[in-house]
Amino acid sequence: MIFRTTSFRTTPARTTRPALRKVRSTAALRPLRHRLDPAAVEEIPLRTSDGVLLGLTRVGTGHSDRPAVLVLHGHTASADMFLLPETRNLVDVLLDEGYEPWLLDWRGSCRLPYNETGRRYTYDDVALYDIPEAVCRIRQRIGDRPLFVIAHCIGSLSLSLSLTAGLVPGLAGVVSQGVFLTPKLAGRTSLRISVMGELLKSRIDYIPVDFRKVGLWSKYTPLFALASRGASCPDPTCQILHNSAWGSGASLFVHENLSEATHERLAELLGPAPLWILPHLRRIELARSVVRWHDTDHRYRALPPNALDAAGRIDTPVLLLAGSENGLWQDSQKLCHEVLAHRQPQLDVRYTEIPGYGHLDTFLGRGAALDVYGHILDFLGERR
Length: 384
Ligand SMILES: [Zn+2]
Description:
This is AB hydrolase-1 domain-containing protein. This protein is α/β, with parallel strands linked by helices. It folds into two domains: 38-181 and 292-383, Rossmann fold (3-Layer(aba) Sandwich), CATH 3.40.50.1820; 186-276, no CATH class. The chain is built from 15 helices and ten strands. The protein has helices at 12-15, 90-96, 123-142, 154-164, 187-200, 211-214, 221-228, 236-243, 260-264, 266-269, 278-287, 332-343, 361-364, 368-371, 373-383, and strands at 41-47, 53-59, 68-72, 100-105, 147-152, 173-177, 206-207, 273-274, 318-323, 349-354. Strands 1-2-4-3-5-6-9-10 form an eight-stranded mixed sheet, sandwiched between helices. It has a two-stranded antiparallel ribbon with strand order 7-8. α3 crosses α4 (154-164) and α5 runs antiparallel to α11. The longest helix is centred in the middle third of the chain and has 20 residues, at 123-142. The protein is globular. Zinc ion is lined by residues 233, 235, 238, 242, 255, 263. Zinc ion binds at residues 233, 235, 238, 242, 255, 263.
């Protein structure tokens, strides 16, 4: 048995255990890694109305008439995933095709400290504060120019909640990668999320990925040991991501699709996963829809209880993208396309599957510019 249960004595002295985390109210953004002209990269301070400092980056082009494209990373990743210096990345492609890229580091970014320290949050907060307020800030700058959004994984799932709440109206188009309105995890992943949430919630706050920081023997050793079973790659960080997706048992990418340089940087590109997010993720997964976490807190009443039920409010064309080998969200995007075609036939939604790709490699893959981005550019190009 990997996880031993501990029996806590019920003496009064033991019932008040110390807090697991130090709460920080300030955030310093880790610098972006890129090969752009530093003068073109504008970091824009963005503090949400609930007081959280985020990262918003505009890549300037010297042109004031270009359509803008906001890109949203997945949970524990960051804007760095669209700027890989070692490959032809999404920002390169957008610049070459005449767009103005904007990158948001929402509160789940590993460039920010909130997954390890700081106030806890749910995806409701991302949908209610981070995404709409970033869109608002961008619109203040771009005026009437078209604004597209390209969103990956939880960035896309949270966007679906913002969209169906009517909080980001009038987008020119949305590209969703991996998952959108109908999240569906593999059976064993789903089970492990429940088990991990229950067994570990009183012991640890987050699952780390960088074995070098964690050390050989720690409370995390069993998780790394579990992830290493049957792994063909000797790198423990790769094992916990490729083999086990932070211990969930899912696979985040097709291994051979990553360049050696990207493989070396995995611990920088994907940060620790907080365990306190699991109850919301679990509720979403059980509902097979993006559902609001806060049912009674009036601050969240703008969000629909169930985003799929409110899909009729989507007012923009949507391209659903997924790798054929997505080891985390399976065929969620295909399912989403089928469900929307049936329930909301008036919506402009299309589905494109990328053969031979998993989940993260659709953006981190060395061949993504050839195999993936063309589909995105075709979609944007028809609507700019
Ligand atoms: Zn590896």
